[in-house]
Amino acid sequence: xxxCEIERFKVLLESRLEALWDRVRNRNAIAIxxxxxxxxxxxxxxERDLAIRILGRDVGEIRLVEAALTRIEDGAYxxxxxxxxxxxxxxxxxxxHATFCITCQxxxxxxxxxESSLHEAPPSPAHLGRIERPILxxxxxxxxxxxxxxxxxxxRARIVA
Length: 161
What we know:
It is a single chain. By secondary structure, the protein is mainly alpha-helical. The chain folds into 2 domains: 3-130, DksA, coiled-coil domain (Four Helix Bundle (Hemerythrin (Met), subunit A)), CATH 1.20.120; 132-161, no CATH class. Helix content is 50%, strand content 6%. It has 5 helices and 3 strands. It has a 3-stranded antiparallel sheet, with no helix packed on it. A hairpin with an 8-residue loop joins β2 (147-149) and β3. The protein starts with a helix and ends with a strand.
């Protein structure tokens, strides 16, 4: 990827980051209002819950965009974090904060991992390539025991099908 193309993606990411921060700053929909009508209170509570979910999604996307801008500064932008192959430009045009090439993204999704769950920091290629051992959930559950995969470094577990 040439410098001009990277600069174009940087401008695109910076404008997206600014738009996301503007949406996050405008939290008027989260305000708690009291009304005399119970149905109005229910409707307002539903709208507030939706606004909170949207806010959480926007904050997650802010983290992904900031991580992409950091990769630009580090010179790693446009390379898949799993296989180190270049991410195709048409994928970056649709999702400029993409961290994986389409092949690695599909493999990760097949194993229950989504790129949008990378809110903290992008994983290292060694972390994603490691085979994770199953951990059985204690106690009975409907449909039998469920398996969880957890990496040694991660405190979060994800369900393995």
